[in-house]
Amino acid sequence: MPAEVKKEIQLEIAHVLFIDIVGYPRVAARMGEPDRAIAALQKLLSIPYGAFPASPLTPALLRLDPMFDPLRNDPRFEKLCQEKEK
After folding, report:
1. How many whole angstroms from its chain centre is CA 32?
2. DSSP secondary structure letters along the chain
3. Per-residue pLDDT reduced to its tens digit, 11-47
4. Against a cut of 0.85, is the pTM above it?
C-alpha cells in the first residue's frame, strides 16, 4: 500500500475515533445513561487542552450544549461544568 494511501486511511480512522469519543457522552446522556455519560465526560475533560487540533470539550461547552440537558441536575455534572483553577 502506498504511503500516501496509508496516511489517508490513518487520518480517516483518527477522525472517526475523535467523533466517537466526543459524541458518546452526548448520546449516553440523551439515552438516559447518566453514569456512562459522566464517566465519558470525565475522561474527555482530563485530556490536556491542545491535545487535539480543537480541544474536544471544555466546562464552558458543557454548560451550553443542550444535548447535556438530561444531566443538568446531577451533582457530578455540575462539578464537571465548573472551571478548574489554574
Report:
1. 17
2. --HHHHHHHHHHHHHHHHHHHHHHHHHHHHTT-HHHHHHHHHHHHTSPTTSSSS-S--HHHHHH-GGGGGGTT-HHHHHHTSPPP-
3. 777 656 666 777 888 888 998 999 999 998 998 888 7
4. no
Give the span between the Cα atoms of 9 and 23, in whole angstroms: 21
Cβ atoms of 37 and 28 within 8 Å: the answer is yes
Q: Which of 22, 85, 82 is nearest to 52 (CA)?
A: 22
For residue 27, give the amino acid letter: V
The 10 Å Cβ neighbour count of residue 28 is 21
Domain boundaries, the chain: 3-80
